Structure formats: C-alpha cells, structure tokens
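Appendix B. Chain record.
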Amino acid sequence: MSEQAVVGVLGAGRAGTAFARVMLRVGIDVDLCSTRPPRALQHHLKIYAPGALAVWPEQVGVRTAQQGSGIVILAVPQEELDEVDPEWLNIPGTESLILVDATNTWHDEELPSWLQAAIDEQLPSSYGIAGRFGRTRVVKALNHISHHDIESFANPDLPLDQRRAVALAGDDADARGHVMSLLAQMGFDPVSLGGLAAGQPIEPGGPLFDRPLRREEILRFAR
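Structure tokens predicted for this chain:
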C-alpha cells in the first residue's frame, strides 16, 4: 500500500481517533467523519487526531477509493450503526471497498435489529456487518486491542516477531492481505485467523480479546 494512500475512518470517538493517530505517525493520510459536520469536527480532531482531515460521511468512501488504499475502518458503536448508510461505501466504477470491522458487541447495548438477528443465531457479529454492508469486503480487525493500548503497542521500528500480534479474519483473501499490510505499516504483527467465522476468538469474552499476544498464541486459533 502506498504510504500516501488515504484510509477512511467512520467514527471519531476514542477508538477512531486512536487508529487515526497511529496511522498518521507512520505517514498514512486519514479521513475522519462522524455525525457532526466537518467544520464542527475540525476542532475535535485538532485535539485528538491532529493531521486527520474531517470529511462528510458521504466523502469517506469516495476519497479512499480515489486515493488508492480502498480501506475504511468502521469505528462506530454498534448501537449507532443504523446511522451509517451502506451507500456511503458503494462507489460505482471502482473495486469494492474493504471495510475493517473494528466494532464489538456489548451486552448493555440495544443493537439494530439486523445485527441482533445475526447474534441471536450465534453468528459472529461481523456476519451481520457483512450482510448490512454487502457491497464491501469485510475484515474483522482492530477490535480486540483497547484504544488505550493501541498507540503504546504500535511500534513499526521493531522487527515483526517482537511486535504485539493482532488477529484478523475475513472471507476475501485479497482484502485480508491489504489489511495485513496496513496493520504491519501501523506497527503490529498481523496474523490471519481465516474467514469471518474464525473471528469469534477476538470478540468480547473470546480467548484472544484484550490480551497482549504473540503470533504463536493467535495461530492456535487459525482455521
């Protein structure tokens, strides 16, 4: 992935801005959007993600498709996902975008009915995300490391085998490869678990959730 490629982030909360800060410090341009108009979001980003560009939600997919990374990180609380229009990520005339699902399901949240239906069937929550955003290639990643830890553990100066390992899962092998490249550039050691069904260990309550991990610990759960 080009060092100047734009990565979009849907959600400007604690997780979204933490992802942005890590990417910005390794030279990746970041577009951030939220429910606030860009002008209102600019001051927030000057404090929490200086260097990120505030854009309209309708722009986030277009710009990353045009600039070459084709990656958008979904960092919106799951109870607010009905506010995210799937059409924002449907860019005619381009390859389908990669949507990194960095969201988690918490028991105290009232979820959208389409997402709750997937969870009621005991499916990984990313199945619901993939169904909702069906014109994207969904990869589950960045959800199992706390936003408090993401900056302190991301270290691109270390050899891969000395970095914190992070897991990802997705049905599209090419999309997984692009996300692995992004995670490595950010300063992690990315490890593929396999398809979306293999992502359950990195969900809340799973054996890989919110733990400092090495590659061999993740590989035990790979399919």
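Further analysis of this model is presented in Appendix C.
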